C-alpha cells in the first residue's frame, strides 16, 4: 500500500516487544498491587478506578462468568476486605488476559506512578523511530490504536527508551471505540479523524486485526 497519508499503529508486538508487556508491565501490577492500594487508598482517583472494576464485576457476575465475584462497597466491607477483593479481581482478569476497559484503566493508573518515578520505561524497537521520522517528513499523520487504555498508551510513548515520542502522534484510540478484531472499529476511527479508510495504513502484528482493518 503506497497511497496512504495516515498511519494507525498497534503497540504490543508492533512498536514495543510483547515481552516488555508480559514480563515487565504486567508483573509490575501483580507484584506491587497490595502495596500500591495501601499507599494510595485515600485517593479519589483510586476510588473511581475501583468503582469501574466494581461495575464490571457486577456485569461479569450477571453474565455468569466463571470465577467472577462482586467487589463490595465501603458500606458492605472493611478497607482490607475491599482491597483483597480488588486484588483477586485484577489477578483473575490479568490471568485471563482480558481486554476490558476497567482493567486497562486500572493498569494505566498504576503504571503512571512507575513511569513518572523512572522505574518503568517504555521499550521501543530500534527501527520505530527512523520510520516515525520518515512518515512525519512525508507529511503523514500517525495515530495509535491499542487495547491498552489511552492514558497507558501516552505513558509508554511519553516515557520511552527513545525519549518522549508523543510529538509524533496526532491521536490515540483504545477499545472504547470498539474491539480491534471488529471491522466497525476501523470505520469509526476513520470517521473520527475525518479520513477515508482507503487512505489509512494500519500496522499490527495480529493477523486478525489486519483482516478486520482490511474489510473496511
From TrEMBL:
The record's Pfam families line, in alphabetical order, gives: Hydrolase
What's an example GO BP annotation here? L-methionine salvage from methylthioadenosine
Matches recorded under InterPro entries: Enolase-ppase_E1, HAD-like_sf, HAD-SF_hydro_IA, HAD_sf
Q: Among its keywords, does the record have Hydrolase? A: yes
State one molecular function term (GO): magnesium ion binding
Q: Which UniProt keywords apply?
A: Amino-acid biosynthesis, Hydrolase, Methionine biosynthesis
Name of the molecule in the record:
Enolase-phosphatase E1
Supply the source organism for this entry. Answer: Rhizopus azygosporus
Amino acid at each position: 500500500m503506497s497511497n496512504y497519508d495516515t498511519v494507525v499503529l498497534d503497540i504490543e508486538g508492533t512498536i514495543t516487544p510483547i515481552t516488555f508487556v508480559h514480563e515487565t508491565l504486567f508483573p509490575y501490577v501483580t507484584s506491587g498491587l497490595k502495596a500500591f492500594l495501601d499507599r494510595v487508598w485515600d485517593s479519589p482517583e483510586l476510588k473511581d478506578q475501583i468503582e469501574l472494576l466494581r461495575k464490571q464485576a457486577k456485569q461479569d457476575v450477571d453474565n455468569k462468568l466463571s470465577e467472577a465475584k462482586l467487589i463490595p462497597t465501603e458500606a458492605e466491607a472493611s478497607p482490607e476486605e475491599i482491597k483483597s477483593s480488588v486484588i483477586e479481581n485484577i489477578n483473575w482478569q490479568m490471568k485471563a488476559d482480558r481486554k476490558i476497559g476497567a482493567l486497562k484503566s486500572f493498569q494505566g493508573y498504576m503504571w503512571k506512578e512507575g513511569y513518572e518515578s523512572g522505574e518503568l520505561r517504555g521499550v521501543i524497537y530500534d527501527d520505530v523511530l527512523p520510520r516515525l521520522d520518515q512518515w512525519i517528513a512525508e507529511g503523514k499523520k500517525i495515530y495509535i490504536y491499542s487495547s491498552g487504555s489511552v492514558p497507558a498508551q501516552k505513558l509508554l510513548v511519553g516515557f520511552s527508551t527513545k525519549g518522549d515520542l508523543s510529538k509524533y502522534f496526532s491521536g490515540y484510540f483504545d477499545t472504547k471505540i470498539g474491539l480491534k478484531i471488529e471491522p466497525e472499529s476501523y470505520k469509526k476511527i476513520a470517521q473520527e479523524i475525518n479520513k477515508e479508510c482507503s487512505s489509512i495504513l494500519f500496522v499490527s502484528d495480529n493477523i486478525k486485526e489486519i483482516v478486520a482493518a482490511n474489510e473496511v
